[in-house]
């Protein structure tokens, strides 16, 4: 058995993303906005996608002012027919997408028996169907170009444990995203497309503001008495996107500040 230590610098942990092109969905607020800025700061050119284009335009200006490269891509991930076009627009502007962050997501915030079909469809289409179709589109292009890629899917600790309170379908979709991460990692390992996930606990964002407005601030119940800051996900994101993490695939990392049980 040969160990090619000489091929690898010590330590082998660079997260320099120069030359990579990232597509981040749900980049108009919250975690996605931070993910886009973090990837740009690490050297990637970033296509930022969401429905609120004014927010994306501001983010692009901010990234460019910091010396980065970015482009805004309007996309409603529920509209599967629009997904290929959005990836094409990102590619036309920045080149082949090599990093996909499936971050766009919505809560259900409703008891199962009170959910209208439109809400059921919207939660499933945003949190699961959209990411699945988008992953397939990005993978198709990487495979055709014979290029390696990285995908990071944003699940939730709520996909692993549920204690009631009107987030049942959200939990189901986030559990499915974790499973999608595992099976697509297996499916595309041979193409050197790594698929991993992050399952955050409760982090400050617009979605969390909405939850606090509905059920109150529950951070006092957490062992550390706080919500996470999106910046505390930077290191996990970069770890999963780093060229040196080439052997890490099919993993979902829980980052919850010790808020929940196991
Ligand atoms: N914050 C937390 O504590 C927490 C915990 C666990 C998991 N998460 C997950 O983290 C991800 C980001 O959530 P967040 O907390 O940052 O919430 P957020 O601030 O509400 O951001 C959600 C983002 O998703 C986008 N989005 C929603 N529907 C979309 C659609 N149909 N098409 C395209 N983009 C859409 C929104 O952009 P537009 O409205 O402009 O389209 C927005 O940029 C979600 O998947 C969420 O489930 C969050």
UniProtKB/TrEMBL annotation:
Q: Please give the InterPro entries that the UniProt record associates with this protein.
A: NAD(P)-bd_dom_sf, Sc_DH/Rdtase_CS, SDR_fam
- Pfam families the UniProt entry points to: adh_short
State the similarity comment: Belongs to the short-chain dehydrogenases/reductases (SDR) family.
Kindly provide the name given to this protein in its UniProt entry. Answer: SDR family oxidoreductase
- Which species expresses this protein natively? Gryllotalpicola koreensis
């Amino acid at each position: 058995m040969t160990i090619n230590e000489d091929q690898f610098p010590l330590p082998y942990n660079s997260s320099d993303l120069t030359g990579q092109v990232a597509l981040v969905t749900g980049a108009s607020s919250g975690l996605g906005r931070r993910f886009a800025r973090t990837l740009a700061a690490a050297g990637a050119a970033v296509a930022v996608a969401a429905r609120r284009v004014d927010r994306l335009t501001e983010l692009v200006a901010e990234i460019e002012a910091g010396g980065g490269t970015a482009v805004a891509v309007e996309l409603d991930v529920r509209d599967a027919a629009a997904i290929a076009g959005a990836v094409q627009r990102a590619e036309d502007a920045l080149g082949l997408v090599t990093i996909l962050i499936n971050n766009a997501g919505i809560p259900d915030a409703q008891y199962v028996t009170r959910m209208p079909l439109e809400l059921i469809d919207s939660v499933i289409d945003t949190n699961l169907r959209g990411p699945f179709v988008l992953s397939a589109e990005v993978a198709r292009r990487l495979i055709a170009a014979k290029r390696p890629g990285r995908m990071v899917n944003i699940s939730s600790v709520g996909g692993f444990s549920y204690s009631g309170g009107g987030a049942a379908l959200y939990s189901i979709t986030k559990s499915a995203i974790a499973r999608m991460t595992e099976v697509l990692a297996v499916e595309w390992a041979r193409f050197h497309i790594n698929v991993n996930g992050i399952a955050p606990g409760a982090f400050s964002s617009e979605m969390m503001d909405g939850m606090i407005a509905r059920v109150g601030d529950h951070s006092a119940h957490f062992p550390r008495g706080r919500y996470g800051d999106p910046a505390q996900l930077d290191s996990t994101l970069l770890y999963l996107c780093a060229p040196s993490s080439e052997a890490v695939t099919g993993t979902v990392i829980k980052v919850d500040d010790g808020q929940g049980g196991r």
